[in-house]
Amino acid sequence: MTESTATWTWFFHLLGLDLGITPANEAEFTFINDRQKGLQAALNEVFPRAELLYWSRSHFKEIVKPDMVCNNMCEAFYKSILDARDKSIIEMLEWIRSYLVNKRVLRREWIRRLTDPMLSNIFQKLEKFKATSHEAIAIGVVSSFSKLGQLLADTL
To answer: Which residues, listed in sequence order, are joined to residue 30 by a DSSP beta bridge?
Structure first.
């Protein structure tokens, strides 16, 4: 099944039934998306009064951008197992297990070849944060941590 207005419409009808969304309460719902194909048209058709917001990593502030977004990891994994989808469930699971083991071996070999204690992209980010760290102000950090530590010690 591909992403299209028809598939999103079908999905939103089922979602509305599961969540009890009716014309009377649909304005209380907010949907967040990253502009998938056909989603906006389907949402406007099924829930015309619901709010629609757009999620985009490109609009995050640089300091809060994660290196990997869960959705990207899921999509990459899904793409990597496409060859296994036409197999029986046991064959598919064995294919995925073998794929993950091989990927882990390759990653371990790659890590063993590293010569620096830190990856260059991480080092560059760290240097960038160091350059702007003079703008940060820490207030009450030591006393808060000592209170937290004491509280934990008291409960253990």
So the answer is: 51
Residue 155, in any domain of the structure: no
Sign of CA dihedral 101, 103, 106, 107: negative
Written as six digits, the tokens of 20 are: 């009890």
CA distances from 5 to 8, 12, 26 (A): 5, 10, 19
Given a cut of 90, is residue 86 above it in pLDDT? no
Which domain does 10 fall in, by range? Answer: 5-55
In this prediction the pTM is 0.40
Tell me the C-alpha distance between 20 and 55, whole Å: 24
Q: How many independent structural domains does the chain possess? A: 1
30-52: pLDDT as tens digits: 888 776 778 889 999 999 999 88
Residue located via tokens 């994994």: 77
